[in-house]
UniProtKB/TrEMBL annotation:
Pfam families: Fn3-like, Glyco_hydro_3, Glyco_hydro_3_C. It comes from Prevotella illustrans. The keyword NADP does not apply. Residues 659-729 form the Fibronectin type III-like domain. It comes from the Bacteria. Residues 1-18 form the signal peptide. PANTHER family: BETA-GLUCOSIDASE (PTHR42715). This is Glycoside hydrolase family 3 C-terminal domain-containing protein.
């Protein structure tokens, strides 16, 4: 009897297993499951998964048990839900999030561990919100400080951006949430972003604009790439044969999906043949315009189906797209091991604070004005709209609805009021009083009745009596500031802030200027201000992060991820008159030729011998460091070998602190012109007072290579090289030479 029962159970179990189709069998390799699912899908089902069905979702395959697929912005937190087919808020009560610091700040940490923490924490928020793909991070190179979306990107250097994007992607995807690295490629400014045709040399494309994307694909193994709005070689980048078919899919062997930017797809034939896999946002300008429920008239919907039925295409291209989408499903929605995630957990706030603390950059600190001496200070005057204005609302698609956001003023009060410090706020200037974006409102009343002169006078009279004056100004996320869709109109600070700062500097020598922005700004008053801090957009924990650094609870260790020029004329793109480009006679396309080629950022500083206000890689600390004794393990290297550099770093001051050791390579003999030096390794080290440590940095052939455009390959040439080591790009004072004995051709 017992035996009989056992036999029946066994048969049932075996029977169930035998019936389970391969595509649902988790013991089978994913590629086999993909092929099995593909075989079972009808033409309608295949077409349905390659385009949107709502503003942010695409269909699964209900009959086979594949659920709908949900995307969401990105990249600083999970965007609140909009209606199914409208951009208006859905009005959910469970879609408030933690806002993490903007990606410029993340890049300024120069700490890949922070990028991993960022991706991981954001992934948990996304999971809880039911999102399968985060539309980010962005790694477009910072080419001009006018760029409206620079705050969403990781700075001017391809190597730094590459080191930071990989762990962000890995952290996010470890949770079973896809990253969608954007905007591929050459979307380096916002003005006319749908019409700009970028003209760029192959060398600049491969050496400057593509490496961070390549790192995300090859090392980060990213599951999604978003095509950019602009054009390259007269073809929109969401269906660009060279960028997508040749470089991304053939050369880099990308096996994920190419997602169009919202409204970035323009043509069925190009979308079919040139590598687009999922079409989103068509009939919109990415924001508001739109036809209602137009999903079946998308370029990859009915028009494509009809063309297949009429025999204009076989299903070859379609199957390639669907395979990629199915692979994406297995990685995300069909991953049964996916955790549930958390929303607004304390761990996420802690992560946001930690990242913000590490990214704030101390640009200048004459006479050690900072940190604020909390033992002697009794009266602090805080000035500026940015001390109170919520900055998580605005900026375009990265705008968020946060559970909480602590302002700089409240952060300082929370830290200093318990110590008996009296803090008073004066507005000083009026920027933008509108606190709403896409239906999310900050609820702040920023109206003001005083005249600009009165505002300055009121601030100055109080500044005279204060122990410290802390000014929070800069940009904000309103149109033509740090905001998607347009670039800034000028390099100078808006809203008359220069005049105010000059007046405050005269009134009080303990003036601390905290610039809130994602971009460099002109600082004509820099010589007259003793302390300058770059405060970025720090998200939910803004107030805590800034108070931590200003009061010395945290010793600043951020380094600029971009060059801070004195004037716009010092920026190669502007000096050469390349921005924003030249309209063609039909006024449909504007050609923007990147005439500066490789010489972007510090590469341009070296080339044109300009003197930036603050150099790429610059950032001060409340302690001091000595970097000495640079050594290299060998003086020759072969193309398949490695070199290890060792340098001693000592904390010679009185506080614990962290320093970023930066290694630049200079090619001393080359058949093609090369930048004077390029960042090829870095490491952040934390040291207690008096502590010293040897830091090792290793490079391989990639650090010596350049793109040979005559042959379309990366190559290195035998000859002499120099490694330059330091803690900023303008003074890498330690040098050591070595030789590459055989190049890679
Ligand atoms: C932006 C993308 C964003 C998408 C969806 C577009 O306008 O360029 O970065 O992910 O909208 O909101």
């Amino acid at each position: 009897m017992k035996f009989l029962l056992l036999a029946t159970t066994l048969t049932l179990t075996l029977g169930a297993q035998a019936q389970r189709p391969v595509y649902l069998d988790e013991t089978k390799p994913v590629e086999q499951r993909v092929e099995d699912a593909l075989k079972r899908m009808t033409l309608d089902e295949k077409i349905a998964v390659i385009h949107a069905q709502s503003k942010f979702s695409s269909a699964g395959v209900k009959r086979l048990g594949f659920t709908d697929f949900w995307t969401d912005d990105g990249p600083h937190g999970v965007r609140p839900d909009v209606l199914w087919d409208e951009w208006e808020q859905a009005g959910q009560t469970n879609d408030s999030c933690v806002a993490f610091p903007a990606l410029t700040c993340l890049a300024a940490t120069w700490n890949p561990t922070m990028a991993r923490l960022y991706g991981h924490s954001l992934g948990e928020e996304a999971l809880y919100r039911g999102k399968d793909m985060i539309l980010g991070p962005g790694v477009n190179i910072y080419r001009t400080p006018l760029g409206g979306r620079n705050f969403e990107y990781m700075g001017e250097d391809p190597y730094l951006a590459g080191r930071m994007v990989v762990p962000y992607v890995q952290g996010l995807q470890a949770n079973g949430v896809a990253a969608c690295v954007k905007h591929y490629a050459l979307n380096n400014d916002e003005e006319y972003r749908h019409q700009v045709n970028v003209v760029v040399s192959d060398r600049a494309l491969h050496e400057i604009y593509l490496p961070a994307f390549k790192a995300a694909v090859i090392e980060g193994k990213v599951w999604g790439i978003m095509g950019a709005y602009n054009l390259y070689k007269d073809q929109h980048n969401c269906h660009n044969a060279i960028l997508l078919n040749q470089i991304l899919k053939r050369d880099w062997a990308f096996d994920g999906v190419v997602v169009s930017d919202w409204g970035g797809c323009h043509d069925t034939d190009q979308a079919v043949r040139n590598g687009l896999d999922m079409e989103f946002g068509t009939w919109t300008d990415g924001l508001t315009m739109g036809k209602t429920n137009a999903y079946s008239s998308y370029y990859l919907a009915d028009a494509y189906k009809r063309a297949i039925r009429e025999g204009r295409y076989t299903e070859r291209e379609l199957d390639d797209k669907v395979r990629r989408v199915l692979r994406l499903f297995y990685r995300t929605t069909m991953n049964r091991q996916r955790p549930i995630g958390f929303l607004c957990s304390e761990a996420h706030y802690d992560a946001a604070r930690k990242i913000g603390n590490e990214g704030i950059v101390l640009l200048k600190n004459r006479q050690n004005v900072l940190p604020i001496d909390t033992l002697t200070a009794r009266n602090i005057l805080v000035v500026g709209e940015n001390a109170v204005k919520m900055m998580t609302v605005g900026g375009g698609s990265s705008s968020l609805k946060v559970q909480r956001e602590l302002s700089p003023l409240d952060g300082l009060r929370a830290t200093l009021a318990p110590r008996g410090v009296n803090i008073v706020w004066e507005r000083g200037y009026v920027g933008d009083t509108n606190g709403s974006f896409n239906g999310v409102t900050s609820g702040q009343d920023l109206s003001e009745s005083r005249t600009p002169d009165r505002l300055v006078a009121d601030a100055v009279s109080k500044a005279r009596k204060a122990d410290y004056v802390v000014f929070f100004g800069g940009l904000n996320k309103s149109d033509y500031q740090d905001c998607e869709g347009h670039d800034r109109k000028e390099y100078g600070l808006p809203y008359g802030q220069d005049r105010l700062i000059e007046a405050l500097a005269k009134a009080n020598r303990n003036l601390i200027v905290v610039n809130i922005s994602g971009n460099a700004v002109a600082m004509p008053w820099a010589d007259r201000v003793n302390a300058i801090v770059q405060g970025w957009y720090l998200g939910s924990e803004t107030g805590h992060c800034l108070a931590d650094v200003l009061t010395g609870r945290v010793n600043p260790s951020g380094k600029l991820p971009f060059t801070w020029p004195r004037t716009l004329d010092d920026v190669p793109a502007h000096r050469l008159g390349t921005y924003p480009g030249t309209w063609r006679p039909d006024h449909k396309i504007i050609d923007e030729e990147y005439k500066e080629g490789l010489y972007v950022g510090y590469r341009g500083v070296d080339r044109y011998k300009t003197r930036p206000l603050f150099a790429f890689g610059h950032g001060l600390s409340y302690t001091s460091f000595r970097i000495s004794n640079l050594r290299v393990d060998k003086t020759t290297m072969t193309h398949d070998g490695k070199l290890t550099f060792t340098v001693n770093v000592a904390n010679t001051g009185k506080r614990e602190g962290a320093e970023v050791i930066q290694l630049y390579i200079s090619d001393l003999q080359s058949s093609l012109p090369r930048p004077v030096k390029e960042l090829k390794a870095f490491m952040k080290v934390s040291l207690r007072p008096g502590e010293s440590r040897d830091v090792t940095l290793t490079i391989d052939n990639a650090a010596l290579s350049f793109y040979d455009d005559s042959r379309g390959v990366w190559t290195s040439e035998p000859g002499d090289f120099e490694a330059l080591v330091g803690n900023t790009s303008d003074k890498p004072n330690l040098k050591v030479r070595f030789k590459l004995t055989d190049g890679l051709h």
